[in-house]
Specification:
heterodimer, A: about 170 residues, mainly alpha, Rna Polymerase Sigma Factor, Chain: A, Arc Repressor Mutant, subunit A, 8 helices, globular, B: about 220 residues, about 0% strand
């Protein structure tokens, strides 16, 4: 990013090659819509070019990119009043205890977790994704979302609680 | 770019199609080929210049037509300096990348300046003009800097606190004009001057929330 700020246009391609897939995965989890994630990927990298001067040297690039992607996703969801559609679960099979990590190889369990995840409010989902999947600290998340560290913790905590509730309700 | 995924076993989302990647890359390269835009620091200079320049222009006109005197302006030196400082600091706080704490601090500065311009006014002098003229004129003067900060806010991610602070920066222009032109009481300032200031901030916040940003960078 610093090389691009210095005028090296090839650095932009390198940035895209390295991070586009990761940004897209984050966006797809945020908006739960692969097509919209495609559009937001473009919006994210357009923002990178347009606001290169807003990148502060020394900052990690990945949190900065995810901040832009998250901002774009939240604003787009807000504007479109997008309601995330959750696929109906036709299966009646019992779920394991939410506290027990289900086997990744079980497609039914996977899908139920994914559906529960999709039901989280966007703010909670974002904090869970950033914390658990992207491995960012609450301090980093707070900086990214322009909120206090406590607020970031609370959003993630509520997200986890909601996930447990959703998966627990399925069990009963 | 990957993080720990073991504790939340979500399946990996579908990767972007080659077509989507190519489209995003092409758009990015086309944007990069266009001339570079002004930096956020240039935006701070532009907005601050509009606020201070417009205020000084109004003061100059008033001096020229004899609507106020140098002695009168000198007597308001503390509040004028405070408001100009607040205007510049709030512009900087609203446009700089990140900096939530800076924006909260600038809100505190606005509050201090608002209290100051009320407290130093005292009993004041009666005016032949209706009180609402101050509100209307301060609001009108604040519209030009409001337009400038709204355009600048489009270059970054939407953020309500940022927009409020930018709106207060624009509104400080009207408050400055009030110090040049108005000799009425503290109560008048509290009601008719501060309401114009708040109104400009509200307008900036509302309009900027409706516009689609050109960038989502923090």
């Amino acid at each position: 990013m610093e090389r691009f700020q210095d005028g090296d246009s090839r650095a932009l391609d390198a940035l895209f090659d390295r991070h586009a897939s990761g940004v897209h995965a984050f966006l797809a989890r945020m908006v739960q819509d692969p097509t919209l994630a495609d559009d937001l990927l473009q919006t994210t990298f357009l923002s990178v070019v347009r606001s290169a001067d807003r990148y502060q040297r020394g900052l990690k690039v990945v949190p900065w990119l995810l901040t832009i992607a998250g901002n774009a996703a939240r604003d787009t969801l807000r504007r479109k009043r997008l309601q995330v559609e959750v696929m109906s679960d036709d299966e009646d099979g019992a779920l394991p205890d939410a506290g027990v990590e289900p086997a990744l190889s079980d497609p039914g369990q996977r899908r139920r977790i994914e559906q529960a995840f999709a039901q989280l409010p966007a703010q909670q989902r974002e904090c869970v994704v950033l914390h658990k999947l992207e491995g960012l600290s609450f301090e980093q998340i707070a900086q990214m979302l322009d909120i206090s560290e406590t607020a970031a913790r609370i959003r993630a905590h509520r997200g986890y609680e909601r996930l447990r509730e959703l998966l627990g309700e399925d069990v009963s | 770019m990957s993080g720990p995924t073991s504790e939340l076993p979500l399946p990996k989302p579908r990767p972007p199609s080659m077509e989507a990647l190519a489209k995003a890359r092409a758009a990015m390269q086309a944007e990069a080929a266009t001339p570079r835009r002004a930096s956020w620091k240039a935006g701070v200079v532009k907005a601050s210049g509009t606020i201070v320049g417009l205020s000084l222009a109004v003061a100059g006109v008033m001096l020229a037509v004899g609507a106020c005197t140098v002695d009168f302006l000198s007597s308001r030196a503390v509040t004028l300096a405070s408001l100009m400082t607040v205007g510049v600091v709030t512009v900087w706080a609203s446009l700089r990348p990140g900096g939530r704490v800076g924006r909260l601090v600038s809100l505190g500065l606005v509050a201090v300046a608002a209290v100051l311009i009320v407290l130093v006014r005292g009993a004041g002098e009666p005016s032949t003009q209706p009180a609402w003229v101050c509100t209307a004129s301060h609001f009108a003067v604040g519209l030009a800097p409001a337009a400038v900060v709204i355009l600048l806010l489009r270059g970054m991610a939407p953020n309500r606190l940022r927009a409020v602070v930018a709106g207060l920066a624009a509104g400080s222009t009207g408050a400055l004009v009030g110090e040049f032109a108005c000799a009425q009481s503290a109560g008048h300032v509290a009601v008719f001057h501060l309401s114009a200031w708040a109104l400009v901030a509200l307008v900036v916040t509302f309009i900027s929330s409706r516009l689609t940003p050109r960038s989502y960078a923090p």
